[in-house]
């Protein structure tokens, strides 16, 4: 049933109900119902009928809203997949070019590293892109699988601590969160020279916090030129989730990335102001 139909019914029902009752009272029950009893009856009849009607109508609206929200989230997932496919294509083209250059210069070890990178990126991307969103494993399982594979390819020890409940994130939020993890760990592998990396994701009644840190060489704010694009991507994705991003790093003391969001932050602030 369309919103237009519901609007028409909402407009006509009270008029038909009250007008019809008044018409019957004056034409049929005029000598059987007193004026005061008739008034009470029309009030009671209106309350009962409008209660059931409004309950039925809002159930329909809630179902429509859930379907619309689901469709939007699924569209966000598919749009992100298209973006990832393009990004993968561009990344592979660049990596293959570097591979060709290294092979022409006889840099076999560098070429092997590029091949491992291509292999990991392709296998992970194919898995993500071909998986039906409705059949995907839980967010925790996907993160664990990806980080463990990243560790095997990079040779960097990775530790994971995840404390989330199923349904804590919408599909669109999961896409952004997973992309933040991928971008952060890619930067660790490329730039940090770390031997260990750590990921913690925790949800509470007040919101959620994700911390990614490594024991690498770190950087100063004015020395982050090489990873500027990666940091910009992290900030953009955090903004899409309405989350706060903090990056803490010092030379020879590793890097810490903290992404967090408080649930109902605006509502809580409003209550506190009262």
Briefly summarize what is shown:
With 274 residues, the chain is α+β, with helices and mostly antiparallel strands. It is 65% helix and 14% strand.
Commentary on this structure:
The protein has 274 residues and is an alpha+beta fold. The chain contains seven helices and five strands. It has a five-stranded mixed beta sheet with strand order 1-2-3-5-4, covered by helices on one side. α1 packs antiparallel against α2, α3 packs antiparallel against α4 and α4 packs parallel to α5. The longest helix is centred in the N-terminal third of the chain and has 70 residues. The radius of gyration is 29 Å and the shape is elongated.
What Rg is obtained from the alpha carbons, in whole angstroms? 29 Å
Physical arrangement of strands within the biggest beta sheet: 1-2-3-5-4
**Number of H- or I-type helical stretches:** 7
Structural class: alpha+beta
Biggest sheet features:
5 strands, mixed
* Helix proportion: 55-70%
| Mean pLDDT, all residues | 78
Rough outline: elongated
Write the layout of secondary structure elements.
Layout: H1 3-27, H2 35-104, H3 108-130, H4 139-154, E1 157-163, H5 171-192, E2 196-204, E3 207-214, H6 228-240, E4 244-249, E5 255-262, H7 265-273
Parallel strand pairs: 1-2
Antiparallel strand pairs: 2-3, 3-5, 4-5
Name the descriptors.
274 residues, alpha+beta, 5-stranded mixed sheet, 5 strands, 14% strand, elongated, disordered C terminus
């Amino acid at each position: 049933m369309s919103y237009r139909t519901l609007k028409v019914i909402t407009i006509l029902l009270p008029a038909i109900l009250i007008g019809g009752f008044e018409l019957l009272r004056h034409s049929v029950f005029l000598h059987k119902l007193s004026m005061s009893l008739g008034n009470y009856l029309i009030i009671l009849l209106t309350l009962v009928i409008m209660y059931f009607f409004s309950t039925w109508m809002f159930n329909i609206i809630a179902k429509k809203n859930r379907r619309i929200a689901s469709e939007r989230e699924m569209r966000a997932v598919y749009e992100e997949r298209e973006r990832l496919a393009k990004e993968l294509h561009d990344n592979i083209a660049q990596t293959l070019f570097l591979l060709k250059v290294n092979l022409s210069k006889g840099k076999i070890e560098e070429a092997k590293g590029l091949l491992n990178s291509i292999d990991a990126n392709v296998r992970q991307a194919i898995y993500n892109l071909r998986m039906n969103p409705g059949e995907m494993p839980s967010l925790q399982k996907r993160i664990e699988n990806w980080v463990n594979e990243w560790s095997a390819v990079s040779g960097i020890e990775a530790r994971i601590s995840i404390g989330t409940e199923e349904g804590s994130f919408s599909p669109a939020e999961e896409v952004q969160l997973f992309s933040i993890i991928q971008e952060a760990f890619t930067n660790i592998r490329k730039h940090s020279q770390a031997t260990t990396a750590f990921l913690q994701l925790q949800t509470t009644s007040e919101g959620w916090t994700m911390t990614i840190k490594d024991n690498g060489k770190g950087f100063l704010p004015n020395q982050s030129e090489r990873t500027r694009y990666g940091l910009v991507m992290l900030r953009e994705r955090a903004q899409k989730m309405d989350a706060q991003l903090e990056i803490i790093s010092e030379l020879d003391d590793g890097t810490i990335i903290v992404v967090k969001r408080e649930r109902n932050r605006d509502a809580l602030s409003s209550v506190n102001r009262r």
